[in-house]
Amino acid sequence: MPEIKRIEFTKEMKHTHTILVPMMLPIHFCFLEHILVQEGYRIEVLHNDDQRIIEEGLRHVHNDTCYPALLVIGQMMEALKSGRYDIDHVALAITQTGGGCRASNYIHLLRKALIQAGFSQVPVISVNFSHLEKNSGFHLTPKLLVKLAAGFLYGDVLMWLGNQLKPYEIEQGTCDRLTKAWIQTLCDQMDSLRFTHIRKNVTQIVQAYGAVPRSSQTKIKVGIVGEIYMKYAPLGNRRLEEFLIKEGCEPVVSGVLDFALYCLENAKIDYEYYDRNKKAAKLAAWASAYLQTLQQSIADIIKADGTFRAPAPFHEIIKDREGIIDRGVKMGEGWLLSSEMVELIHSGVNNIVCCQPFGCLPNHIVAKGMMRKLKDRYPASNIVALDFDPSATSVNQENRLKLMLANARLYEHFGEETAKELTNA
Ligand code: SF4
Fold this sequence. Notes:
Among the domains are: 13-139, 3-Layer(aba) Sandwich (Rossmann fold); 220-254 and 312-425, Rossmann fold, CATH 3.40.50. The model has no long low-confidence stretch (mean pLDDT 92). By secondary structure, it is α/β, with parallel strands linked by helices. It is 55% helix and 10% strand. α2 (28-38) packs antiparallel against α6, α7 (174-189) packs antiparallel against α8 and α15 (334-346) runs parallel beside α16 (361-377). It has a four-stranded parallel sheet with strand order 2-1-3-4. It is built from 17 helices and eight strands. 43% of the residues are buried. It has helices spanning 13-16, 28-38, 51-60, 67-81, 106-116, 142-165, 174-189, 198-210, 228-232, 234-237, 240-246, 257-274, 278-305, 314-320, 334-346, 361-377, 394-424; strands at 18-21, 42-45, 90-95, 124-127, 220-226, 249-252, 351-357, 382-388. Bound molecules: iron/sulfur cluster. Residues 66, 68, 101-103, 227, 332, 357, 360, 362-363 line the site of iron/sulfur cluster. The site of iron/sulfur cluster (SF4) has 11 residues, from α16.
């Protein structure tokens, strides 16, 4: 195996290379793509999502590795091998969290895969906030970060409202069309300051979603939590939201802003617990306060309109983990994952699917490891852990989900005590 050398993404490459980005959040990444194009990058978010991705992943990544790594690397390798790109003018982008788990090391696995496949000239850009790798042709400037934060906030709002509208729409496809139209409207605004008028835009979005005719049917609400990629990426969780809607349920998925706030909170915890970087902790506290103010104002707009449920503020999510898990548990999704499950239960969503990728030790501890505790504290909770790996069959997963939904229906129709007797009979 030849030595793994890092190819820098240079200033010149910004004009000559197309950067391929693996898909994670379908709505949010539309904004990401537009914002980066506006900043002068040539960007393409990958939409390939068939079985060949798993095969490519298995070809280049050891099957003991975290499943999200296998999928992300598989998606990029499949794209490169497809013949759709000029290999001498293409680059790849991947995140490095800088945390303690393996997410920071996917980049090295990707470079190894590129060498194996004969694509050693392809530069890989690390997207990180941890002073890890730098590239002269790619910079996360303050202006870019502000735009990305706004784009991801809009993404959260559209995802949150869409999940409350789509299962109830009278004319099928209305919600998807409305979401598409708002993505376009917001992308058109990106050139002007209007894009940053978040409150004004969110008020109009809430009104537009509220005006869509909906059925008044009661549907079972099902929360989705898990490792971040498995929770959001349709490729990772096999289109779980769509499956739940088809089964007559309403999926409840918290926004990615909570994960960003969790990362900022961890910088504060690092300082409090381990006396690490005071300056980083201060900066994180400032950024967190700013984002939480925005989050609160969005929740206030949704509450004032009264048509849809508003998301829980982050300071409540932090409190939810008390007595369940310590703040020091911050590998993977850490204390956030347990807190999200508690928050769902507190908001009346007792049915929860927890997406567990193969090879992910931290999330097995903070998710599966917490289920007994949650069940003892909240007997009506109905949580199912769904394991994802290259050989997991969709039939098996769908059966587990249907069993969970059958229990949810029993609870709903007969109440907790009778349902328990029936399921134990
Ligand atoms: S959170 Fe789990 S799946 Fe994600 S990188 Fe860490 S160990 Fe792997």
